[in-house]
Amino acid sequence: MAAKQRVLKLTIMQHRNPSMSEEDFHAHWTRKHAPLASAWLQRNEIISYTQYHTPKSTRYLAASVAKDFGWTLAGYDGYVDFMVSSVEDLKNAVEDPEYPEKVLPDEQMFMDQSNSVVTVGWEEVYVKDGKVINIDRDGNSIYGQDGRVKLWTCGRWCLGESKELGWR
């Protein structure tokens, strides 16, 4: 099995600016902000940028399931995911002069940043395109319990090495 690069996923849960309608928020985020942010993020070596839109009309599709399991239905208008090699990469991106000049003013216009919530971690994907992946021949996850990836090389298992602020 080839070596997997462990990347970090930074997710920001966000609310729209209360002065903006839900429809206008989603339209602006897609049509204006995505093109503005994408070139800046690419130039700053962000691996991926994904918008996850959660208007009320789709959020409440999960209401009965949430109730059945005793879950709380999240009230965010959207989530944004950044895949990065390290948290330092995103820090460098916001230090790029384009961020305070162009990107931040746009974010402040359509998002309520005072109520945003952030988390960072990594993905462990086990089903993709309808197929089970990342499970070894013995039925175990290829991801170690300590978050490191087990790699199959030269007929033996070894562990990938972590680096501070990210995985390589």
TrEMBL record:
**What family is this protein classified in?**
Belongs to the tpcK family.
Under the GO molecular function aspect, what terms does this record hold? Answer: oxidoreductase activity
Q: Where is the EthD domain?
A: 17-114
| Gene3D superfamilies from the UniProt entry | 3.30.70.100
SUPFAM superfamilies, per this entry?
Dimeric alpha+beta barrel
Q: Which domain of life is it from?
A: Eukaryota
Task: Quote the protein name from its UniProt record.
Answer: EthD domain-containing protein
Which InterPro entries does UniProt cross-reference here? Dimeric_a/b-barrel, EthD_dom
